[in-house]
Design goal:
15 strands, single chain
């Protein structure tokens, strides 16, 4: 990494390589243990031409109760240059009871660049009985290819204002997972055949969509974190191998 600027509690690990694989692995760490009311995380990534990067979050992102009523913000801006490749490994966002959180993610790609991106949203600290006890959760996810907006995914949950368990919303699901693939080689993925490989069982639902602009989106709804996370990792690895 030729240029690194970091300020506590955010920190990036040094570059790690596995064998002769040219992909560099970097761990993103948050030493505070979580975000409290009014905190803001800003993450900016710039990938040079032909670079290959795998970013892994060290642990789940915990959003603590907002006793002051202030919202925690996280902003992620990513620029991926020609023929570069980024893999952002999925981890869990856990909003505690009374938490308020907003994340804005913007990916900007060249036509020849590739990104594989995942995220998981938890209902709260399930083992403590905190299910949809947070105040609000907002996520705005945008993807630009050559400055053209090809995807905008917005989630807004306010459990106190609307019942998330009702029909047509989350029903009996508690965890939401997403994997995005944007690549010039996306034609190598047979979406219909890939759909057949997705595990759809009791407590786990999944769907895959092909978007204009060389993009694929997979989304899951699950009752259990473990089964959802395992399935997402399997699909993530399969997509990474195809492109």
């Amino acid at each position: 990494m030729p240029h690194v600027f970091q300020q506590p509690p955010l920190k990036a690990s040094r570059e790690l390589y596995e064998g002769k694989d040219p992909t560099v692995t970097v761990y993103l760490m948050e030493s505070s243990g979580g975000m409290v009311a009014g905190d803001r995380n800003d993450i900016t990534l710039k990938l040079a031409p032909e670079s290959k990067v795998r970013l892994i979050q060290q642990s789940a992102l915990k959003i603590y109760p907002s006793h002051t009523g202030e919202t925690c913000f996280q902003r992620i801006d990513v620029d991926i240059d020609e023929d570069a490749r980024l893999e952002w490994m999925p981890e869990v966002i856990i909003p505690f009871a009374d938490a308020k959180f907003q994340v804005d993610t913007t990916l900007r790609l060249k036509e020849s660049s590739t990104v594989l991106w995942g995220e998981i949203i938890a209902p709260g600290r399930e083992k403590r009985g905190e299910i949809y006890d947070y105040e609000s959760f907002r996520s705005n996810f945008k993807v630009y290819v050559e400055e053209e907006l090809i995807a905008f995914d917005s989630l807004h949950f306010s459990p106190n204002e609307a019942d998330l368990r009702r029909v047509g919303v989350l029903e009996d699901a508690m965890y939401i997972g997403s994997v995005w693939l944007i690549s010039p080689n996306v034609d190598q993925v047979d979406v219909r055949a890939f759909q057949e490989t997705l595990r759809v069982e009791e407590g786990l639902q999944a769907g895959i969509t092909r978007l204009e602009g060389n993009a694929i989106h997979c989304r899951w709804l699950g009752r259990e974190q473990w089964s959802l996370q395992e399935e997402m990792k399997r699909v993530y690895a399969a997509l990474a191998e195809l492109v």
